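Q: Fold this one first, please.
A: Sequence and structure below.
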Amino acid sequence: MITLRSILFNTLFYANLILRMIFLSPIYFLLPRKKAYFIPKNWARSCHWLMEKIVGTTFEIEGLENIPKGGYILAPKHQSFWDTYALLPWLDDPVYILKRELMWIPLFGWYAMKQRMIPVNRGARGRIMAAVMERTKQEMLSGRQLIIYPEGTRRPPGAVPHYKYGIARIYRDLQVPVVPVVMHPGLFWPRTTTKRYPGHFKVRILQAIQPGLDPDTFFETLTGQLESASDALLIETARDNPHVPLPQTARKRIAELKGASSS
């Protein structure tokens, strides 16, 4: 049954994305940029509805009161394609720094350009990265929310963390609050399989780290908070969803945490 539900969900998920892009493009590209954001946000809501009705997966968000007003950096743990779009309905005017190759995708790239997403060549250095940083500053001055995944790429639940120091430099240069976020959608939407699993999980938004720390102190604070909160939420999510198959990384990490608590 899980396999059939997964096939149906995956089919409708991508059909929903493509058809909305095609048929809503005239509205999207005629509207002012920020007003047009309601189309991607409604798409995200529709994806949540599909996942709940077809797969049986639901979620809740804790800590919405921790989101500041105006511009800030959102720094979530990154496990699944789910978390790339899931929080859009709760954000005012988010902006992403994207691989430039994504901007070349028909329709998707055009949508991203409309929202002034920031393309970057990951191999770039020097003046190119300085230009990206300057562009980011300009977007933040208008009160937008920059979404950055501190580990840079998707990591399976419980995996040994691999944080990139670049977020500390961005924090130093932008001088805005950073909001850590933990969640474990990778247990329900794994990155290495097409299967989708039913259950319920939480997205936990932590208190913002205010600007003004030196980069090293900020980096230690951010990574420490993310890992501590992620470990606690992993144990909670696995306990509340005993039917969900845990990847080896999650089983190993839970065993380590239980062993540490009993010693």
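Q: Good. Now the second chain.
A: Here it is, same layout.
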Amino acid sequence: MADALIADGVRIAYDAVGPADAPPVVLIHGHPFDRTLWAPQLAALAPDFRVVAPDLRGYGASTVVPGTTPLDVFAHDIAALLDRLGVQRFVLGGLSMGGQIAMECVRLFGDRVTGLVLADTSPRAETDEGRTWRRALAERLLREGMKGYADEVLHRMVAPHSAPEVQDHVHRMMCATDPEGAAAALRGRAERPDYRTLLSRVTTPTLLVVGAEDTYTPVAEAESLHATLPNSTLHVIERAAHLPNLEGPEEFNQALRGFLAGV
């Protein structure tokens, strides 16, 4: 692990693996996780790609900033980190909230993105009901900490039949997340815009992946996103829920490597 000071005292921790001159791939984790979400992908891609997986601000070993963290702040953090690393153009992947941050990156600096990987995510703006729920959850996490929430959602994040070590990894990531960082992200995500019009004009090659048992962003949502993106392919991973990169890593990695070979 390394870290970089990007702005205003914020340090972003990250893993960077693979040859320095190899094609860059950047992977953005979701909520409430950290960069270790992508451990199977770093191992699989490292021989042939330069893979960068940061901890978002408020998560993992990066600086925790309380208050509200909108998606554009996360996106600017990614850009600043990549500038520090000398990475100008790259394939960008994100899962769940990480996918929404990737969409924001496309909005802000899409000319730098040579390929897009969106896993178990939605381009839709938050609903009124969703905004109320996210703000209430932010307050709950600040009052109670992460464990109760982690216990409740574990088997929506990963299917109950997933490997015990995967369940343990996911639960550990959630419990280790700082409630201040998680709450700031929830408040920011409550205000997210609708990306569908933007994406309908994006011709960047895009891989969409979704777990067949995902109840947060179901297969129907991925199919709608597939119909929106002009140059996309969709891969559904059976017996996986919201985190197919951990639940079915071999299949996920095969789809990812096949996509990267064509970008």
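Q: Anything worth noting on the second one?
A: Strands lie at 2-7, 10-17, 24-28, 50-54, 90-95, 113-119, 206-211, 232-237.
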